[in-house]
């Protein structure tokens, strides 16, 4: 009897303890938030290294997207672009399901991403090290096991820069415009890659962001100064050869182009695949400037040619002074060959006739007059100092005086003819230099205008009209 009473008491005590425990558990459950209870339940025994499928032969389908927020920087020289993006990941985790009615209609749960299985998506063309992870954020999990993870990230990726402006969408609703670069187009392409080391198929997503430099800044700071330098280079041909500043101005313009080339080279990638139009334009302008300096040296050499060293050939005189000068409307000095010879012959006759008259007059003069005349001739021409004039008044001596005076006069006339001929030859060489300088000016002007029109206006605007994307330099 005692044993029966003891058993009944123990049974009642255990029942009382069980009821108290259940009451305390129910009360404790009422004090814990639903999300906390659900997270404890879902994370109990959860392994982040295991794929979120119960059947090992089943694939995990991950939907990937990208939202472009801002273009931070574009390093053209190193061909690296830095962007702020949101990486959109979405997949189904079969282990994260629950009944919303058990948790007061809780349909969506936020769980830290580092506690969940995450897809191993890697940026192939990453310009940084791969030790950097994503920003720690929460993932949104629905009661059906659908996981959405949108980590914001700053991507520093290598990209090939096309300097010649050649050709599923990215979300641009939150895009912030950049003052240096204009966003032209975006696209996403999915590819499947099979590597030789593994027969498995690896999905590959290629995201294309097409941007273009805004050109207003570069027009004001590079293109217009280059045009002014071209104008200064052409003005060098307008300087007279005697000024001595033609080569100085050309070298100054050439050094200015060199500085601009250094500025362009610092911002352009060191690659030979694509060459920017502005680089081609500067190279051609430097070539024209170098050619103008070389040709200016030739013009100065022709202008200061010494007549006793070179004589202008007849064919060159006719080609430049008669044919080319008329074509380019360049006026030359009045020194044709016929006029020069006529002038030389008239001067020679005019100089010989006074000499003859002087000789005839001396035959009728006295010895004193002869002596005075000889002194005057010596003053007029130092070469007459070598002439010997007898001071006696005999007939033979007067004849000798007249012969000496005639020889002195002939030397004076010959020297004057040589001076006139040298002056005419010098003038002809100067005319040749002027015609050559005008011809070079026209050549450089045509090359400069064509280069500017083709490289700065025609090609960029033709690309703009064909693609409707923008003007690229």
UniProtKB/TrEMBL annotation:
Q: Where is the Neurotransmitter-gated ion-channel transmembrane domain?
A: 222-455
Tell me where in this chain the Neurotransmitter-gated ion-channel ligand-binding domain is found: 35-163
Pfam families hit by this protein: Neur_chan_LBD, Neur_chan_memb
Cited PANTHER family: NEUROTRANSMITTER GATED ION CHANNEL (PTHR18945)
Q: Does the keyword Transmembrane apply?
A: yes
Taxonomically, which superkingdom?
Eukaryota
Q: Where primarily located?
A: membrane
**Do the record's keywords include Transport?**
yes
One GO molecular-function annotation for this sequence? transmembrane signaling receptor activity
User: What CDD domains does UniProt report for this protein, alphabetically?
Assistant: LGIC_ECD_nAChR, LGIC_TM_cation
- Keywords for the protein's UniProt record, in alphabetical order: Cell membrane, Disulfide bond, Glycoprotein, Ion channel, Ion transport, Ligand-gated ion channel, Membrane, Receptor, Signal, Synapse, Transmembrane, Transmembrane helix, Transport
Which cellular component, as a GO term, is one annotated location? Answer: postsynaptic membrane
Q: What is this protein called?
A: Uncharacterized protein
Task: Report residue spans for region: Disordered.
Answer: 335-354
Tell me where the signal peptide lies.
Answer: 1-20
Q: Where in the cell is it found?
A: Synaptic cell membrane
Q: Which residues cross the membrane?
A: 215-235, 247-265, 277-300, 439-461
In what way does this protein cross or attach to the membrane?
Multi-pass membrane protein
Gene3D superfamilies linked? Neurotransmitter-gated ion-channel ligand-binding domain, Neurotransmitter-gated ion-channel transmembrane domain
**Which species is this record about?**
Ridgeia piscesae
């Amino acid at each position: 009897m005692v044993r029966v009473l003891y058993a009944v008491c123990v049974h009642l005590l255990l029942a009382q303890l069980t009821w108290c425990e259940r009451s305390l558990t129910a009360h404790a459950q009422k004090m814990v938030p639903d999300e906390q209870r659900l997270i404890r339940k879902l994370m109990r025994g959860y392994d982040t290294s295991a794929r979120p499928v119960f059947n090992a032969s089943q694939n995990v389908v991950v939907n990937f997207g990208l939202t472009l927020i801002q273009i931070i920087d574009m390093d053209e020289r190193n061909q690296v672009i830095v962007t702020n993006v949101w990486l959109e990941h979405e997949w189904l985790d079969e282990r994260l399901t629950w009944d919303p009615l058990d948790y007061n209609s809780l349909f969506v749960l936020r769980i830290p991403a580092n506690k969940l299985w995450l897809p191993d998506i890697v940026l192939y063309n990453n310009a940084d090290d791969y030790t950097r992870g994503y920003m720690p954020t929460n993932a949104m999990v629905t009661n059906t096991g659908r996981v959405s993870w949108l980590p914001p990230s700053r991507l520093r990726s290598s990209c090939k820069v096309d300097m010649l402006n050649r050709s599923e969408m990215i979300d641009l609703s939150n895009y912030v415009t950049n003052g240096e670069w204009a966003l032209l187009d975006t696209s996403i392409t999915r590819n499947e890659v099979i590597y030789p080391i593994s027969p498995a198929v690896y999905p590959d997503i290629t995201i294309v962001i097409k941007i273009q430099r805004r050109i207003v800044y570069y027009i004001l700071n590079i293109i217009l100064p280059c045009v002014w330098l071209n104008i200064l280079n052409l003005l060098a041909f307008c300087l007279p050869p005697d000024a001595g500043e033609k080569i100085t101005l050309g070298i100054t313009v050439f050094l200015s182009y060199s500085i601009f080339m250094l500025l362009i080279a610092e911002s352009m990638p060191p690659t030979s695949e694509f060459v920017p139009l502005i680089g081609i334009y500067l190279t051609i302008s430097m070539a024209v400037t170098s050619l103008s300096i070389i040709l200016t040296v030739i013009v100065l050499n022709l202008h200061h040619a010494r007549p006793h060293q070179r004589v202008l050939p007849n064919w060159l005189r006719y080609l430049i002074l008669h044919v080319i000068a008329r074509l380019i409307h360049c006026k030359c000095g009045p020194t044709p060959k016929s006029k020069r010879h006529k002038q030389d012959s008239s001067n020679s006759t005019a100089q010989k006739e006074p000499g003859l008259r002087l000789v005839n007059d001396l035959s009728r003069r006295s010895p004193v007059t002869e002596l005075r005349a000889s002194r005057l001739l010596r003053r007029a021409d130092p070469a007459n100092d070598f002439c010997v004039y007898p001071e006696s008044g005999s007939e033979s001596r007067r004849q000798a005086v007249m012969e000496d005076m005639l020889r002195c006069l002939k030397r004076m006339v010959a020297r004057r003819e040589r001076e006139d001929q040298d002056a005419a030859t010098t003038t002809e060489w100067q005319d040749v230099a002027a015609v050559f300088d005008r011809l070079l000016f026209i050549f450089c002007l045509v090359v400069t205008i064509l280069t500017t029109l083709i490289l700065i206006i025609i090609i960029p605007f033709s690309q703009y009209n064909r693609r409707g994307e923008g003007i690229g330099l």
